[in-house]
Specification:
Layout lengths: L2 E4 L5 H8 L7 H17 L1 H12 L12 H10 L2 H22 L4 E5 L2 E9 L2 E5 L8 H14 L3 E5 L10 H10 L3 E3 L3 H10 L9 E3 L4 H9 L5 E2 L7 E6 L5 H12 L6 E6 L2 H14 L7 H11 E5 L3 H11 L3 E5 L3 H5 L7 E4 L5 H6 L25 E9 L1 H17 L3 H8 L6
Parallel strand pairs: 1-11, 4-5, 4-7, 5-6, 7-8, 9-10, 9-12, 10-11, 12-13
Antiparallel strand pairs: 2-3, 3-14
Helix pairs in contact: 2-3, 2-8, 2-9, 3-8, 4-7, 5-6, 5-7, 6-7, 8-9, 10-11, 10-12, 16-17
């Protein structure tokens, strides 16, 4: 069951172990990853199909690896109307939120004879990895593909592993079609990352790869980042809840369970200044995990391994700890959550108030659920429309503007011994 402690009892070593949590340790799998990637690089499609059969138990070839219109139509026929509408509504909300991000990127500023500005341009080709292993994640397809298309990515590819029975999961096909994906391939694992990075006869290479995956997929992305751009480090899921005496214990317990449901390595932490809330949440968790829930063993394992309820002196101490840990998800259940938001420095995504559960961020609110874990929120942001764009600055300088900058430029150029730089100003005859 989840552990209950006080902040004053957290020793430095324990805190260090929390801060080091979830880092993707690629060394353990790097040899295998390198071997598969090299096989795909040198043997192309042959290696791609061979490893798909060996690791996923699915036999595919150049005629069956890519989804056809008939495959997508079949997926729509299999799904019920409510499922399709839910995917469409989620996609619409995601698109709206990420379109707002676009509106704040370009700018132009003029003065003293010079105009400076920034324009944005989309990355030409992007690959989305959609995990298949324990369960399909169509929501992750939406989170990656919808912002990419909102940014204007011209060629968008999805790769998702097949099963021995089905080449494509119908919900992956539905999400891809709703998001406007251009190509869908039934390949997964290291071989899919390598194919997208190097390119094969069947699957042309992309310029950037995004999307979550297991340790092999993450290791492959890191290994091949010399050849293709990647998104961010994403490992086991995490939640920190900061709560005061006004919070509802059943809400807190439910949110901790929801995070533990992701993975046996999920991190689930409550920081509260109320001993009553701490004990009540522990009791609720005990009650809620005593029945016969789906994934109950995984939930119990996560709570036992990485679950923690910490009583703190006050909310200031809670936020100090939360910022040190830099969680993927930070939930603030206090009387005035907006005022606590001002203290947030490091988090992937913040949820304010008792009626903002992480689940809406995972699926329907419109914000992105591809977020940094393992403490990487100290330096990384969650996936956004910016990840699919590059910015290009420009300078438009008049003769008057150059006259204002001439002597500064010449002086600095001569300090650095760059005579030709200085000459390029002098030749324009704008000095006083």
């Amino acid at each position: 069951m989840i552990h209950l402690t006080r902040s004053i009892d957290l020793d430095d070593e324990f805190l260090k172990s929390i801060l080091r949590r979830g880092r993707v340790e690629v060394e353990a799998v790097e040899k295998d990853v390198r071997s598969i990637a090299e096989a795909v690089r040198t043997r192309g499609d042959d290696a791609l199909f061979e490893y798909t059969e060996r690791l996923d138990g699915a036999i595919i070839n150049s005629n069956t690896v890519k989804a056809t219109k008939e495959d997508i139509d079949a997926a729509y026929n299999l799904a019920n109307e409510a499922d399709i509408k839910a995917l469409e509504k989620a996609a619409s909300n995601i698109k709206r939120f990420h379109k707002m991000q676009l509106e704040r990127l370009d700018f132009r500023e003029s003065g003293r004879g010079i105009t400076l500005g920034v324009v944005t341009r989309p990355i030409p080709a992007v690959g989305v990895y959609a995990p298949g292993g324990k369960a399909p994640y169509p929501s992750s397809v939406l989170m990656c593909a919808v912002p990419a298309k909102a940014a204007g990515v011209e060629r968008l590819v999805v790769c998702s592993p097949p099963s021995p029975r089905n080449r494509f999961n119908p919900y992956i096909l539905l999400a891809s079609d709703i998001a406007g994906v251009d190509e869908i391939y039934c390949v997964g694992g290291v071989q899919a990352i390598a194919a997208m990075a190097y390119g094969t006869k069947t699957l042309r290479s992309v310029d950037k790869i995004v999307g979550p995956g297991n340790i092999y997929v993450n290791a492959a992305k890191q290994l091949l980042s010399r050849y293709v751009s990647i998104d961010l480090p994403a490992g086991p899921s995490e939640i920190i809840i900061v709560a005061d005496e006004s919070a509802k214990p059943e809400f807190i317990a439910a949110d901790l369970l929801a995070q533990a449901e992701h993975d046996e390595n999920a991190v689930c932490i409550l920081l509260t200044n109320s001993e009553k809330v701490a004990h009540d949440v522990q009791e609720r968790l005990s009650e809620m995990t005593s029945g016969r829930l789906p994934k109950l063993e995984m939930i119990r394992g996560a709570l036992e391994k990485n679950g923690l309820i910490v009583t703190v002196k006050d909310l200031e101490e809670a936020m100090t700890l939360a910022n040190q840990i830099a969680p993927e998800h930070l939930v603030i259940m206090t009387r005035k959550p907006g005022s606590v938001l001002k203290a947030v420095r490091n988090a992937g995504l913040v949820f304010l108030g008792s009626y903002s559960p992480v689940a809406i961020g995972d699926y329907s609110a419109g914000t992105n659920h591809v977020l940094p874990t393992g403490g990487y929120a100290l330096t990384y942001s969650g996936l956004s429309v910016r990840d699919f764009l590059k910015t290009i600055s420009y300078v438009d300088c008049s003769r008057k503007g150059l006259k204002n900058l001439a002597q500064t430029t010449i002086t600095l150029a001569e300090i650095e011994g760059m005579w030709a730089h200085s000459k390029s100003i002098q030749v324009r005859d704008v000095q006083e």
